[in-house]
UniProtKB/TrEMBL annotation:
<dbReference type="InterPro" id="IPR028356">
    <property type="entry name" value="UDPglc_DH_euk"/>
</dbReference>
<dbReference type="Pfam" id="PF03720">
    <property type="entry name" value="UDPG_MGDP_dh_C"/>
</dbReference>
<protein>
    <recommendedName>
        <fullName>UDP-glucose 6-dehydrogenase</fullName>
        <ecNumber>1.1.1.22</ecNumber>
    </recommendedName>
</protein>
<comment type="pathway">
    <text>Nucleotide-sugar biosynthesis; UDP-alpha-D-glucuronate biosynthesis; UDP-alpha-D-glucuronate from UDP-alpha-D-glucose: step 1/1.</text>
</comment>
<keyword id="KW-0560">Oxidoreductase</keyword>
<comment type="similarity">
    <text>Belongs to the UDP-glucose/GDP-mannose dehydrogenase family.</text>
</comment>
<dbReference type="InterPro" id="IPR014026">
    <property type="entry name" value="UDP-Glc/GDP-Man_DH_dimer"/>
</dbReference>
<dbReference type="InterPro" id="IPR036291">
    <property type="entry name" value="NAD(P)-bd_dom_sf"/>
</dbReference>
<dbReference type="InterPro" id="IPR017476">
    <property type="entry name" value="UDP-Glc/GDP-Man"/>
</dbReference>
<dbReference type="Pfam" id="PF03721">
    <property type="entry name" value="UDPG_MGDP_dh_N"/>
</dbReference>
<dbReference type="InterPro" id="IPR014027">
    <property type="entry name" value="UDP-Glc/GDP-Man_DH_C"/>
</dbReference>
<dbReference type="InterPro" id="IPR036220">
    <property type="entry name" value="UDP-Glc/GDP-Man_DH_C_sf"/>
</dbReference>
<dbReference type="InterPro" id="IPR001732">
    <property type="entry name" value="UDP-Glc/GDP-Man_DH_N"/>
</dbReference>
<dbReference type="InterPro" id="IPR008927">
    <property type="entry name" value="6-PGluconate_DH-like_C_sf"/>
</dbReference>
<feature type="domain" description="UDP-glucose/GDP-mannose dehydrogenase C-terminal">
    <location>
        <begin position="333"/>
        <end position="448"/>
    </location>
</feature>
<dbReference type="Pfam" id="PF00984">
    <property type="entry name" value="UDPG_MGDP_dh"/>
</dbReference>
<keyword id="KW-0520">NAD</keyword>
Length: 465
């Protein structure tokens, strides 16, 4: 079976880039990304490619090449579903904020709505692909909805989790470490697996396309994120020991990373991991383990999150104690708000928690981030409900120019590892600051020796003094 027409439900950080790359690599397949959010679809259709809703290096060029040829963005969901042979579900699966499993389980209401809509709109057989990250065994719930509420047509359900990281999404999609496809064992299911594998085979070597049963595929995604986040929490735990003992966490990372069994990637100590995935997916894993009565397993993984919270809190605590135990009324500059460089995404960014802690201490914060909008920053803070929106606006200001943001500051803190911060004129920044001038580098981005020579008091995660 050759797929000619794809519908992707969800035009977000995964649906948008993933479908743009499929469209680019498969000119004979029509790809339409649909969403209920009209503003988001309008932004994807914008003539100004700087206004796409998502910033990812290389993405605008691909959208420019494919859009209007075989890549489309639309809010006409039913029609697009009906015309497609294969439907990807790529909607958000956030942590539940209500009811049973509140604060832990994945909220599957958007997934269920998609399943019901697919069932209603489909007048021919379809392959339905789980692209969203889902709790293990969700495919059986989707199947039950499709089979019980549909128009008598047949649905094959596959799991095809996405492993892209933001900031490198295009590169990760063009050259993935692997493609994972989970499917059932019946002949029809296997044909569906082959149809999806054939799409990726247009640009991914066959030996990187891995097929498994559905449950292994669903669980592998949660496992991968848990392992990755665990590495960050592990090195962050060591960073605290380094600060107490005079060891340097960068040297420790290098030394252990040269062991081929450990490997060198994902060992950068930081102010704490952020992003929409790690925390949500580990909480989901913890919830699943608890629901099977596997309390030791649940406790083990929960510790990864607790360590991450600790890392963010101890970073802001250290700022307050270093600044003579009070930041009340002091201007503190945040360089970076995004959860990592090369993205405009701020979900679960460590900057949000650090800002909230410092605002509780009555600091005055000034933020500069090269890609994050003013509106986003205030929304992130307001969402915490710690103080009123007006208070947040009066205590935190946003600058379009980094030098203005740093002027008259008592301390600068690096919360995102944007490359441009390295090339700033740190001498002139120093001149315009209150003295002593402090830098709290939450990303190990800047050169300690150079900054100390200029006159800064420099604090780096994981370096003892
Ligand atoms: P997102 O919030 O950026 O996008 C989801 C989109 O789905 C939104 O635009 C929303 O309006 C739309 N949507 C929700 N319900 C809908 C419905 N019923 N019909 C049509 N549209 C609907 O989310 P995301 O970051 O793209 O993540 C999507 C999924 O992919 C999640 O399960 C996430 O865990 C997973 N994932 C994310 C990443 C990442 O880096 N962001 C990486 C791998 C996997
Ligand atoms: C992650 C997974 O990497 C990806 O495979 C999955 O599909 C989605 O979740 P993402 O959250 O986009 O991707 O970015 P990632 O590069 O994993 O970084 C997550 C967070 O960890 C960031 O805040 C980053 O700064 C932090 N991090 C990462 C560290 O603090 N140290 C490291 O060594 C690596």
């Amino acid at each position: 079976m050759k797929i000619k027409n794809i519908c992707c439900i969800g035009a977000g950080y995964v649906g948008g880039p993933t479908m743009a790359v499929i469209a680019k690599q498969c000119p004979n397949i029509k790809v339409t990304v649909v969403d209920i959010n009209q503003a988001r679809i309008d932004a994807w259709n914008s003539d100004d490619f700087n206004k796409l809703p998502i910033f990812e290096p290389g993405l605008a060029e691909i959208v420019k090449e494919a859009r209007g040829k075989n890549l489309f963005f639309s809010t006409n969901i039913d029609k697009t579903i009906d015309e497609a042979d294969m439907i990807f579900i790529s909607v958000n699966t956030p942590t539940k904020t209500y009811g049973k499993g509140k604060g832990m389980a994945a909220d599957l209401k958007y997934i269920e709505l998609c399943a019901r809509q697919i069932a209603k709109a489909s007048k021919q057989n379809k392959i339905v692909v789980e692209k969203s990250t889902l709790p293990v065994r969700t495919a059986s719930a989707i199947k039950s909805i499709l089979d019980n509420t549909g128009n008598g047509v047949q649905f094959q359900i596959l799991s095809n989790p996405e492993f892209l990281a933001e900031g490198t999404a295009v590169q990760d999609l063009l050259d993935p470490d692997r493609i994972l496809i989970g499917g059932g064992s019946s002949e029809k299911d296997q044909k569906a697996v082959d149809a999806l594998a054939d799409i990726y085979a247009n640009w991914v070597p066959k030996d990187k396309i891995l097929t498994t049963n559905v449950w292994s595929s669903e669980l592998s995604k949660l496992t991968a994120n848990a392992f990755l986040a665990q590495r960050v929490s592990s090195i962050n735990a060591m960073s605290e020991i380094c600060e107490k003992t005079g060891a340097d966490v960068r040297e420790v990372s290098k030394a252990i990373g040269m062991d081929s069994r450990i490997g060198s990637k994902f060992l950068n100590a930081s102010v704490g991991f952020g992003g929409s995935c790690f925390q949500k997916d580990i909480l989901n894993l913890v919830y699943i383990a608890k629901s099977y009565g596997l309390n030791e397993v649940a406790d083990y993984w929960e510790q990864v999150i607790l360590m991450n919270e600790h890392q963010k809190n101890r970073f802001s605590d250290n700022m307050v104690s270093t600044l003579y135990n009070t930041v009340s009324g002091k201007k503190i500059t945040f360089l970076g708000w995004a959860f990592k460089k090369d993205t405009n995404d701020t979900r679960e960014s460590a900057a949000i928690k650090v800002a909230d802690n410092l605002l509780n201490e009555q600091a005055k914060i000034s933020v500069y981030d090269p890609k994050v909008s003013e509106e986003r920053i205030y929304t992130d803070l307001d969402y915490l409900n710690t103080r009123s929106s007006d208070e947040n606006k009066s205590l935190l200001t946003i600058n379009k120019d980094p030098y203005d943001a740093c002027k008259d500051s008592h301390a600068i803190t690096i919360l995102t590892e944007w490359d441009e911060f390295k090339s700033y004129d740190w001498k002139s920044i120093y001149k315009n600051m209150q003295k002593p001038a402090f830098v709290f580098d939450g990303r190990g981005l800047l050169n300690k020796k150079e900054l100390e020579e200029i006159g800064f008091v420099y604090y780096n995660i994981g370096t003892g003094n």
